[in-house]
Specification:
This protein is an all-alpha fold. It is built from eleven helices and no strands.
Amino acid sequence: MPPIKMKNAAKPARRSTEDGEAASKPRPQTRIQREKQDIILDAALGVFSVHGFRGATIDQIADAAGMSKPNLLYYFPRKEEIHKQLITKMLATWLAPLREMDETGDPIPEIRSYIRRKLEMARDFPRESRLFANEMLQGAPRIYDILAGELRELVDDKADVLLRWMDEGKISRADPYHLIFSIWATTQHYADFDVQVRAVLGKDRGGDGRFEDAARFLETLFMTGLSPKKA
C-alpha cells in the first residue's frame, strides 16, 4: 500500500539569518517605559548639574526620581549610561545656535541673533549648561573626542565664515576663535553663575528681566566692537 500523503502536514520551520536578526532586534518601548526614562533623565540632570559625574550616585538619582534603586537600574543599569544620554542630548542642543549662523545672511544681525539664542539657552537650560561646565572642570573625559572632533569642525567652519565677512569689510577684523569663545563665556555666565548674578543685582534687577538686560548690553558690546570702522 502506498504511503498516505498528508495534504496539510506542517512543514519544518526554516532557520534563517532573517529569523536571527528579527529575534535580536529590541522590542519598541512602551509609553510607560518612555515616561519612566524621561523621569529618570530629568532627575539625573538635576543631580549631575549639582554634583558632577563623580559626585552623583544612583541612590541620589533614584531618590530625585521618586523611585526605588532596583526600579531605576531596570531602565539604566549603570550611571554612565544615564550621563551619556544627557550629555549627548545636551551637546546637540548646545551646538544648534552656532550651526544656525547663516553664512549668506547679514553678519551683524546674524551675530546678534547668535548672542540672543545663547542667552535664551542660559535662561531656559541652566541645568544643562552646568552639566557641561562640570564635565569641562573634570577634563571632559567622556566627551573630549566630540570636542576635538565635531565641535572643532563646526567652530573651524564658522571661523572661516567670520574671516570672510572681515575680508569683505562687513565686520571689523578680530580673531574669530576668540570672538566665539567670548560669546560663549559672556552668555553662559548667566547660567553657570546665576546665583552670583542674582545676588549682585538684588531683588529689583535680579528677576527674569536680567536676561533681557544682558542681551541689550552684550549686543551693544559686541556690535560696537565688530561694526566696520569708517575711514
